UniProtKB/TrEMBL annotation:
Residue ranges of domain DUF1023 in the record: 113-274
Record key words, sorted: Hydrolase, Signal
Signal peptide as annotated in the record: 1-27
Residue span of region Disordered: 22-41
InterPro entries: DUF1023 (IPR010427)
GO molecular function: hydrolase activity
KW Signal (keyword) present: yes
Name this protein carries in UniProt: Alpha/beta hydrolase
Native source organism of the sequence: Streptomyces glaucosporus
Keyword Transcription belongs to the record: no
Length: 324
């Protein structure tokens, strides 16, 4: 038990001390955003179609897609106008209607919930006509106030991949904030994985191609837990503390799994253990994990895997547009 206790303490302290690349130290924990989107009560009370509207809490994206497919253009527009906060966040709603509902929040916003630190998903490129779709899942300290970092990564990836690829910057879960216990546990990742799986189900229900997931840092924990519940074609992790799986086979997915880690990334100093829900398990770039390891020697730091000119961005673009 002495060796186990030492390993546990080392993992916890290292994660807490090194785990955040932005934001102040924090001893507290985050409460993941839960419950239906704002405006749900009015949505459920709306009988203008002569039928009950699907409950955002329990209805699957395919049920939502079926509803909207059976409506006239006028009926769809009325729902957008009367219930923008529900329509804009409801997976399975056609893309153009979600854009309309979220227009006050910005251009091509696919989801927007301002509660708490906020959740947002924004598209770069022509999603409705894309041959390929990529989704970037960020790590800690990303919310509405810091979303520009993830949006910039999406823009750089889309420019490198080309016009037939649309990239979604998906800050659709409550990320760890600052340096605290949340970074060392899977609690927020579990909620994030549920949201990510539902989001990708919504893409499928909208008739879009199977996405490739690009998961950074703590976002790779989210993707690891969501892997078996998505239809992703590829899962790419970078700067990963672990995916809460012993190896790629344990992820339970048919997706190709890729991993990158720069020699200059501080994440390499975090022990790859998982004990009593602390730590996130095996290093995805380790030989025994089973992922295809991408070159990352020219990546200067933990946050620069999408930087223009890096070998990782070139490889990511080739994966996203189906050339690798």
């Amino acid at each position: 038990m002495g060796r186990l206790r030492k390993t546990l303490i080392t993992a916890l302290l290292t994660t807490l001390l090194l785990g955040s690349t932005a934001g102040p130290a924090s001893a507290g924990t985050e409460n993941p955003l839960s419950g239906p989107p704002p405006g749900t009560e009015a949505w459920l009370a709306d009988d203008s179609l002569g039928r009950e509207l699907p409950d955002p809490t329990t209805a699957g994206p395919s049920e939502v897609a079926t509803l909207f497919a059976g409506l006239t253009d006028a009926q769809q527009q009325k729902l957008v106008e009367d219930h923008p906060t529900v329509v804009g966040n409801l997976d399975g709603v056609p893309v153009h209607l979600r854009y309309q509902a979220n227009a006050p929040a910005g251009d091509q916003v696919l989801a927007y919930d301002p509660r708490g630190r906020g959740l947002i998903a924004q598209v770069v490129g022509d999603l409705e006509n894309a041959a390929h779709v990529a989704v970037i899942v960020p790590g800690s300290d990303i919310d509405i106030s810091t979303f520009d970092r993830t949006a910039r990564q999406a823009a750089d990836l889309q420019e490198e991949a080309g016009d037939d690829t649309a990239v979604i910057a998906w800050a659709g879960y409550t990320t760890p904030s600052g340096i605290g216990l949340d970074l060392a546990t899977g609690r927020l990742a579990e909620t994030g994985a549920e949201r990510l799986a539902r989001f990708t189900d919504g893409l499928d229900a909208a008739g879009l191609p199977d996405p490739s997931l690009f998961c950074h840092s703590y976002g790779s924990v989210v993707c690891g837990l969501a892997a078996s519940g998505t239809d992703a074609s590829d899962i790419v992790v970078m700067g990963s503390p672990g995916m809460r799986a012993d190896d790629a086979a344990a992820l339970g997915t048919d997706a190709r799994v890729w991993a990158a880690k720069s020699p200059d990334d501080w994440i390499d100093r975090v022990p790859n253990v998982e004990v009593l829900n602390l730590g996130h398990g095996a290093d995805p770039t380790s030989p025994g994990f089973g992922a295809t390891v991408l070159p990352a020697d020219d990546v200067p730091s933990h946050d620069e895997y999408f930087a223009p000119g890096t070998s990782t961005l070139t490889a990511f673009a080739a994966i996203a547009d189906g050339d690798l």
